[in-house]
Amino acid sequence: MTGSFTWRDGERLIRFGRGAAAEAPGLLAENGFARYVLLTTKRAEDALPALRDDAHQVVRVGPGVVDELSVELLPAAGDRPLVALGGGRVIDTAKAIAGVRGGPCAALPTTLSGAELTPFHRTPKGVAGARLVRPSLVVADPELMASQPPPALAASALNALAHAMEALYTPLANPIAELAALRGAELLAAGVRAQPPGRDEVALGALLAGSASASAGIAVHHATCQTLVRTAGTPHAETNAVMLPHFAGLMAPRAPRALGALAAALGDPEGDPGRAAPLVAELTVRGGHTRLSELGVRGDHLPEVAAQVEQHPALAATPSPPREDELLELLRAAL
């Protein structure tokens, strides 16, 4: 077990632990979320009916991308406090709406996306003056966060591991984020390897990795995966899971200290940077997909993806950013 805690971080309150979801109605009432609008999905709503019953209104978030979903749902969200119960798409949509119309936003994650902790997200398409926000109340219950079946849970954990990896080598990398990232990586790996999966471990690991990412930001791995999702329509977590071993290999000679530390966190006793990629690949297998083609990516998608990544702002946060031809070669190897 990983225990439970309450963390006051500036304007934000984070409650973590098994059973925390049962405390959500009281925490919401105590922290300015009376008569809230609940943004959620059918799966998430059924997992916590008390939150639906207390809501002034329930708004379902369907499939799609955040900048378009947030525009579509902006009128329905009204001007009441927002509570997001769901995965990264749901939470980022709530953040995007809150960034336009103001007011508090709370998050109860049902995946390991880390969106509940990060202050970055896409903004509503075509809406001027949108700002970036982070939820002011986070209720992180491992029974909700790690509620997916094992393959989907493993893919979500690899998405979280990508947050930890990239937090180690961006220009904003720092000792606090590094400690959170490496401990998060240890917990994520242990939880994915366990049979049955260690749900408490992956939940806390994802929270730590999300905190590290919020502090240090993202780089080429995320730039590429975000572009693949938007270009080829691939699922977010699975895309990150498939691509992560490839980017661990790409970054080993570019950021050897960081990848050596990651390899050690994943179990390599020598901390060999070259071991990070195969250790990540062993975890990726647990997610059920190891090739982009299994997710619906075609060879003709790849030149467009590589060209778009070259324009992505996160590319500049990468040590020795790869050129378009190198990135295209890496994508073809993952196909």
Indicate the topology.
Layout: E1 5-9, E2 12-16, H1 24-30, E3 37-40, H2 42-47, H3 49-54, E4 57-60, H4 66-77, E5 82-86, H5 88-101, E6 105-109, E7 137-140, H6 142-145, H7 150-167, H8 175-193, H9 199-216, H10 220-232, H11 236-251, H12 256-265, H13 276-284, H14 302-309, H15 324-334
Parallel strand pairs: 2-7, 3-4, 3-5, 5-6, 6-7
Antiparallel strand pairs: 1-2
Helix pairs in contact: 4-5, 7-8, 7-9, 7-11, 8-9, 10-11, 10-14, 11-13, 11-15, 14-15
How would you describe the overall organization of this protein?
This protein has 335 residues and is of the alpha/beta class. The protein has two domains: 5-145, Rossmann fold; 150-334, Dehydroquinate synthase-like - alpha domain (Dehydroquinate synthase-like, alpha domain, Up-down Bundle), CATH 1.20.1090.10. It is built from 15 helices and seven strands. The chain has helices at residues 24-30, 42-47, 49-54, 66-77, 88-101, 142-145, 150-167, 175-193, 199-216, 220-232, 236-251, 256-265, 276-284, 302-309, 324-334; strands at 5-9, 12-16, 37-40, 57-60, 82-86, 105-109, 137-140. Helix 7 packs across helix 11 (236-251), helix 10 packs across helix 14 (302-309) and helix 11 crosses helix 15. The chain is globular.
